[in-house]
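sorry for the late reply, my laptop died twice this morning and i had to redo everyting from scratch. anyway the thing you sent over, i finally got around to it. pasting the sequence first so we're on the same page, its 131 residues, then the predicted structure underneath. double check i copied it right bc i was rushing
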Amino acid sequence: MTQIPEQYRDLLEEPVTASLATVLPNGQPQVTPVWCDLEDGLIRVNTAKGRQKHKDMVDRPQVTVMAIDPQNPYRYLEVRGRVARIEEEGADAHIDLLAKQYMGVDRYPNHDPDETRVIAYIEPIKVSDLG
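ok and here's the structure:
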């Protein structure tokens, strides 16, 4: 597994909204703004089961995550990777953790009892950084 350079880890550990690119069934890329964090070198992205990005990651696990430093748009991190696994366990707690980090609230305000949250664990394969 490729490591995220230490000097760019802040772009995935601090509340920086990243872009997640997945591949649609027709081969067209689809890009979504996401919250993310790192765990044991893997990028974690939280979404609801059944959303387009979830279906894409299940069917075509090749993804790219790009985080741009909000203070310097020329300092960025691009991580090409693959979804190593997707888990439901702990996903509600994870979205609450991200809401605390990104919004300063204890509970994610858009919890929907009709949705099942999932965590996608992305393994970095190629890392490009600039800054």
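The chain has three helices and seven strands.
thats about all i looked at so far, will dig more tmrw
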